[in-house]
Design a protein that fits this description.
Elements lengths: L1 H6 L4 H4 L5 H8 L7 E5 L7 H9 L11 E5 L2 H6 L1 H12 L3 E5 L6 H11 L6 E7 L5 H8 L7 H16 L4 E3 L2 E2 L1 E8 L8 H12 L3 E3 L17 H10 E4 L4
Parallel strand pairs: 1-2, 1-9, 2-3, 3-4, 4-7, 7-8
Antiparallel strand pairs: 5-6
Helix pairs in contact: 4-6, 6-7
Length: about 250
């Protein structure tokens, strides 16, 4: 710490024991290599294997093991089989941490192929994030709009529980690290404020993981807003994560 104090050009006695803002900025000014690629499947047209080959070219030293891969998928990607194919292609390409994020409110029969595909992934840690929007069905319908066929909140819960059961049977990717993580998510906002604690406690117990996301930006007229973030945190995250646009 004293060496770092001297590098910011101030005597240690002036900054010790309370670091100044200048010291914090100095300690934060470290170069960060790309650690994550973020791919929206809706923007990609290549078959899964070709897409992964092109993503590996973006990795430092063309080594996929050095990167996490986040795939943003839709329910249509799950139902068509594209999601499962892409996760498998990513594991074969050498990505060892694969994060797939999608809603799962489709009919359970339509999710079976994707869930079965996840059970066959080897040598990779797969994280499936599922935005569930609300803990109670009536709140879900109010937020998402009730659909004529109904049942979407119940479908989401059913499909996530199937994933949780699968995660308990897949074993570890490496010793001590489960091969499949299931992460139900909810966004902190006025509509679900009274449900957040119940949601978090229930899914943490059942799935072993749960995330409460902040709103991406304040909403006019709502009491709950995201906490401000230091600019240097945004800069570091932007440096470590690269959103991949359409590859042609």
């Amino acid at each position: 710490v004293r060496r770092m104090l001297s590098q910011v050009g101030a005597p240690a006695a002036d900054l010790w024991p309370v670091p100044s803002a200048e010291l914090v900025r100095h300690l934060s000014a470290t170069s960060v290599d790309i650690q994550e690629l973020v791919v929206d499947l809706a923007q990609q047209r290549d078959p899964s294997a070709r897409l992964m080959a092109r993503l590996v070219e973006l990795a430092p030293n063309r080594c996929a093991e050095d990167l996490a891969l986040t795939l943003l998928g839709s329910e249509a990607d799950i139902e068509s089989g594209r999601a499962g194919e892409t996760v498998h292609a990513a594991a074969r390409a050498g990505f060892r941490t694969i994060h797939f994020k999608s809603q799962m409110a489709m009919n359970p029969d339509s999710a079976t192929g994707f869930i079965d595909a996840l059970g066959m992934v080897k040598d990779a840690v797969v994280i499936v994030s599922v935005p569930m929007h609300a803990h109670r069905a009536e709140t879900y319908d109010m937020m998402m709009g009730s659909r004529p066929e109904g049942g979407h909140h119940a479908n989401s819960i059913h499909n996530v529980r199937r994933l949780v059961r699968l995660s308990r049977s897949t074993g570890d990717a490496v010793p001590g690290i489960p091969g499949l993580w299931v992460v139900p998510r909810i966004t902190r906002q006025d509509a679900v404020y009274q449900e957040i604690e119940e949601f978090y406690d229930a899914w943490l117990m059942e799935a072993g993981a749960c995330v409460i996301d902040p709103l991406p930006a304040p909403r006019p007229g709502e009491r709950i807003a995201p906490l401000p973030r230091p600019a240097w945190v945004d800069e570091l995250e932007a440096a470590a994560s690269r959103r991949v646009q359409a590859l042609h």
